[in-house]
Every structure is written in C-alpha cells, then in structure tokens.
Amino acid sequence: MKSTDETLEALGWKAYFSEQIMGEEAEQCRPVRVMAVHRGKIAVAGAGLQCFISPYIPGAQPSDDHPTVGDWLLIDRDTLEPIRVLGRKNLFKRRAPGDPRKEQMIAANVDTLFIVASCNQDFSVARLERYLVLAREVGVDPVVVLTKTDLTDTPETFAAAARAIEPGLHVETVNGRDPASVARLAAWCGKGETVALLGSSGVGKSTLVNTLRGSDNIATQAIRAGDGTGRHTTTVREMHRLDRGGWLLDTPGMRELQLADATAGISEVFDDFILMAQGCRFSDCAHGREPGCAVRAAIAEGTLTSARFDRWCKLAGEDSVGAARHVKRRR
User: Fold this and answer.
1) Given phi > 0 = left and psi -120 to 50 = alpha, else beta, which region is 139?
2) C-alpha closest to that of 92 among 103, 80, 78
3) 206 annotated as belonging to a binding site for a ligand
4) Judgement on whether residues 170 and 228 belong to the same structural domain of the protein
5) Does the predicted TM-score (pTM) go above 0.70?
6) Is 201 annotated for ligand binding?
7) 287 in a known ligand binding site
8) Backbone angles phi and psi of 173, in degrees to 5
9) Looking at 198, 220, 250, which one is the last position of a domain?
10) Would the annotation count 293 as a binding residue?
11) What pLDDT digit, counting tens, does each position of 134-189 carry?
12) What confidence tier does 257 reach under pLDDT thresholds 50, 70, 90?
C-alpha cells in the first residue's frame, strides 16, 4: 500500500457519487477508484491511498456488479476489502468476443470518449459509426481523433468523411508523435476529467497516450511496412494521469465491437433514417419491397445513401439478435 497526496476530486470524484454513501458506510468505508484491471487483482487509488486489492465482491452476481476500470468502489477502512461498486454515471460495454450471449464491461464513469482511427487504408466509416453508437447509448460526448496525419497528404479528406457521419461531430486530426499537434485535445483533459480512448488495433493509441502524458511508458510497436498500421501493445485497461490534471482511460485495441443493447444509440446516430422512416405508409415497414416506403424512395432520389442504409440495417439486426440471446441466457 502506498500513500499519495491525490484528492478524491482530482481522481474524478463528484457529488453524484458522494450522494450514494449513507450512514454507517461513511464511517466504515472509504471510496477508491479503479485505476487498472489485471487478472485476479485491481489497482485502486483514493485520498492518500494507492494499492492493489481483490476484484471479488461478496454476493455480487451479475457481471455489472463487478468492478471495471473507472469505477468507484467502497472498501473497508481496515481490511481494504471491496464492499460494493457505487452507481455509475455511465458504463461502456460490448458483447463478449466469441460468446455474444455474454457482455463485457469496457469502462465506467467517463466524461468524454476519444474514438481513435488512423488516416490510412484502415479508416472505416462503419467502424466509427459503431463507436459513436456506443457513446450515444450511454450519453457520453464523443470526439473522433484521427491519427497518423504524417502518413498522408490529405488528412482533411478523412476528417470530412468523419464529420459527414453526424452534424456537429467533433473531429480532430493529429500526429500522435507531435506534442503541438496533440495539444488540440487539451480542452477535454482538464482536472478531474476522465477521457476514454477506444479504437481498433494499430491506430496509434499507445503513441497518443505517451504524447498526452509526456512520457514513453507505454510500449509501442513499429508500423508494419506496406500497410501503415501498427500492432496494439496495450494489454490491460488502465487510467493514466495527464499533465493538465485529467485522466486518460486506455484499453487494448479492439478487433471486434459487437454492440450490447444499443437501440437508443443506433437511433441517435442514424436519426436521419429514423425520421425518414416515419413517412413510410406502414408503421412496421421493413424498408424492403413494401409500397410507400419513404426510406427506399429517399435512397432512389439520392437523399439517403444505400451504403449507410445497409450499415444501419446491420447494426440494428445485430443489436436485436444480441439482445434476444442475452434475454434467453438470463432466463
């Protein structure tokens, strides 16, 4: 156990969490934040405290009752054993890779989501839409961060494609190795603020974290010749202290992101289709061969694109199937 001079407020503590602690809990327990998740243990920090503790909470059954990075826990003042997870402001989760019946927690209590993609052939509008759905579903403001601008002569082409997804979307283009370039992200990294970093493998997240922190503590691998991508080297979910007083929550690169119960998020990201569908003749229109389909008419007129429509159908179908499997499993 280490003693630190960190305050709860500096760690991201807000009234939302303090209001959940009542009576004897305030005397017998102390709040700590989960800074990293390892196999069989978690790193936590609180006022004047930094240590590793067990992640297992007595009586916790659903996976959501177990701690994830960014969580606030109450632990026993004497034994440091975890008592319970405080209610979350938000929780990012996905279908577990290989088993869509299970959900996997990603991060909790986030103020801003940096969706990281690279300015090369790996750039994908469909992938960005998935991450945007994830952010909108839990009510967290997203910022698309396009990295590796030093590898292209046309970074604005990628930025324009990202901005076209959603009106008013924040999009920043940066060279992850250049502190002056990365400084554009400082507005979201103030004292006590928590920024989560999500993105696919090899988009330059570790390089970006190193520059934001002003250190080289996170191992990065060289870009592979020929395709301009790297291999992700973040192996645990953890929070990093930033110079401006904020916290950067880094996660391993994701090779797949299957959404979990994201109906509201899909509706928000694809609100153009949702609004258009209200003009269909039939309320249960599947936007196939039904007469009077406003969506198909808009695609034929060029108002909406068939590619975006296909992505909408794919996400909506995936979400409904995943939700049905989850309900069946819980039964």
Assistant:
1) left
2) 103
3) yes
4) yes
5) yes
6) yes
7) yes
8) -105, 125
9) 250
10) yes
11) 999 999 999 999 999 998 999 999 999 999 999 999 999 999 999 999 999 999 99
12) confident
